[in-house]
Amino acid sequence: MDEQLHTLIEFLKKPSVSATSEGIEETANYLKETIEKLLGVKAYIEKTKGHPIVYAEVNVRAKKTLIIYNHYDVQPVDPINEWKYPPFSAVIENERIYARGASDNKGTLIARLFAIKHLLDKKELNVNIKLLYEGEEEIGSINLEDYIEKNSNKLKADAIIMEGAGLDVKGRPQIVLGVKGLLYIELVLDYGIKDLHSSNAPLVRNPCIDLARIISTLVDQDGKVLIEGFYDDIRQLTNEEKELLKMYDINVEELKKALGFNEFRYNDKDKIVEALLTYPTCNVVGFECGYTGKGSKTIVPHKAFAKLDFRLVPDQNPYKIFELLKIHLQKVNFKGSIITHGFEYPVRTSANSPVVKAMIESAKIVYTTEPQILPNAAGTQPMGLFVYKLGIKDAVSAIGAGGYYSNAHAPNENIKIEDYYKAIRHTEEFLKIYSNM
Amino acid sequence: MDEQLHTLIEFLKKPSVSATSEGIEETANYLKETIEKLLGVKAYIEKTKGHPIVYAEVNVRAKKTLIIYNHYDVQPVDPINEWKYPPFSAVIENERIYARGASDNKGTLIARLFAIKHLLDKKELNVNIKLLYEGEEEIGSINLEDYIEKNSNKLKADAIIMEGAGLDVKGRPQIVLGVKGLLYIELVLDYGIKDLHSSNAPLVRNPCIDLARIISTLVDQDGKVLIEGFYDDIRQLTNEEKELLKMYDINVEELKKALGFNEFRYNDKDKIVEALLTYPTCNVVGFECGYTGKGSKTIVPHKAFAKLDFRLVPDQNPYKIFELLKIHLQKVNFKGSIITHGFEYPVRTSANSPVVKAMIESAKIVYTTEPQILPNAAGTQPMGLFVYKLGIKDAVSAIGAGGYYSNAHAPNENIKIEDYYKAIRHTEEFLKIYSNM
């Protein structure tokens, strides 16, 4: 076994479950030592209010500086009895390594380190690298914003590569140029101190009915958001981005089957891709009010609440959308309180930016196939923090050792050994091309 | 202590909590024996799927027959530590008897029995009596409909007096000529088999948003029900009934304070009485969907449900309203299922019916004050079962030993001994006048 595989397997054998804190400290220390050993630079365990961030710089006095973001924490292993091998045993079977975190994202993390090492060894590293390894990605990156704000000088860079992308169902590398943003709020209506017998229904307003009405003023049957100004700041897709969407390949029937909803809005592949990646949404995550047990009880509930997430697209600003929402709620006579649970910026890096161009070119070399390029992901990642808090212009999620088959977040997570080596090569080629641009 | 008080106190000392079944059997047996001892007729313990009904007939071969309905079960005693005396000790203090069930409705039940006994003793009972004592009133009369259907021949009668009315805050006897009806349903929308990550929100319909929209098509901000035809069958109040409403006395500020809702619809006393007694309602009792725990989770829920009660007024038919509702739901694109939890008919007996006239006249004699007469109650009672299933034309809730002070359903339930004796006299006078009409 070569050093590249051996280092990965040792890393995979270390539990690092952020939700339970299992093995977090030991894994952070092991990562620090690994960086120092492979790259010959000093690495730091940096405290946060939660799990530490592992940080290191490789300064080759180049003109350009790149942040490489990964996380060393993993998802919990439940349901444990569905695993073929213990989740932290890193058993190899049929040219695959089985371990929690193999795909998300320890394989990718170590692959990138070896690529840097190889370039250093060959004296071919011509871009300064800042390595930022988070320990809380799987629990919502809850202390990352604070860390970034406090270290904004140290973290100056021209571009950043995130994790999260891998190989699609046909083995093509994904290159994701951005993320959706998020506004997460909770609406609470509380009209009294206790539920009333429902014979009083003629005398009082019902908070559940009022909240239902208010929700129906926010979004229509087709999913169109009815808040005035909501769509105003949306950046139109360029023709190039529209082409990328068309080239994006999904199997409609498989997707529908996997989601299992009978109330599916679209049948056309192009429409599905467009909606998934470019439509902002107002979604009700949860709603609770009054008596919800078995059978019947006759009350007027005094309180109702709903949790809503708004997925935002470039250049919607979550703070501005929140202001528009408050104006709307006043218009529709909402007499309650609003709790905020999160603001995340959307990002869409230009397909013409150096980091993206280098990513595409290097992917073609290593995988000898067209990469699958997404203008942005359907979901949300802390990418927006780097772009908006640090002013880093270009961000991209790409280079992943995991694939469609990898069972990320599920039992029997695994990667193909071959894909791990390809991720090393992809990183190496990318860094070379990018530094020459 | 005379026999009338002694018999009541012994009855109050017997627990008969329908919710827990505590003492139900013993109390039913004691009631049977008490009827037989006092009235010299045979009484029966009649089985149901739940707690038994105690039934007896006093046939004096009169032309008219009256059902007297009461229940021998009581509410649970919680919170037990707020009672001054143990709830089944029936302690007398300051001319009041403290016991669970004293007001609701064991005092009334025994008072009526003694009135019949007195008339029998004086050979002045000129109306046939059918005594029907339920053991499940406090748990929703769940087996009464079945019993009534199976015994419709035996239960033929000209009129019925129910329990539930007593003395108001000024000591005036209440006479309630009817009840609201009820339609209780649950709407369920289930679009999938599992909740989805909310990055899929653009692709699928959200059952919570759809259910909120559907609710907002059922009822507007002012409480007006938007189902076509909902108001069509409402019987207009007669001028006499309108007068009764105006004469009905409530303290608006006290009522508002007791309900404790800041979203109160009316301030005018007459408007409040009108709304409370004559407006039908569409009320959401409960609504649940998706994630309702702490903080944030980003899902599209696959399922949502809501429980709704419709309070109906004469002559709305709960089964017809249900048909109208189904038509409405189809119009607004409801793609879910409907669970029914209950259909109860509204009742409003004419103020000119013999039973009501006799009740008013006898109340004036005993209480030397104007009774408070309600065209119907704000709530629902099984009265409709007797009127619609048995074809009994006239029904009234009146004659109660309890008052505004009585803490029914609460700790330290009590009645004034004086009001118990007045209930005996009221029943006696009522039966005399009614039989002569």
Automatic annotation (TrEMBL), chains A, B:
Domain Peptidase M20 dimerisation: 180-333
One BP annotation, GO: proteolysis
Keyword Protease part of the UniProt annotation: yes
Domain of life (superkingdom): Archaea
Organism classification: Archaea, Thermoproteota, Thermoprotei, Sulfolobales, Sulfolobaceae
GO molecular function: metal ion binding; peptidase activity
InterPro entries reported in the protein's UniProt record: Cyt/Met_Dipeptidase, Peptidase_M20, Peptidase_M20_dimer
Organism expressing this protein natively: Acidianus manzaensis
NCBIfam families named in the record: PRK06446.1
Record has Manganese as a keyword: no
Residue stretches in coiled coil: none
Key words of the record: Hydrolase, Metal-binding, Protease
UniProt name for this protein: Peptidase M20 dimerisation domain-containing protein
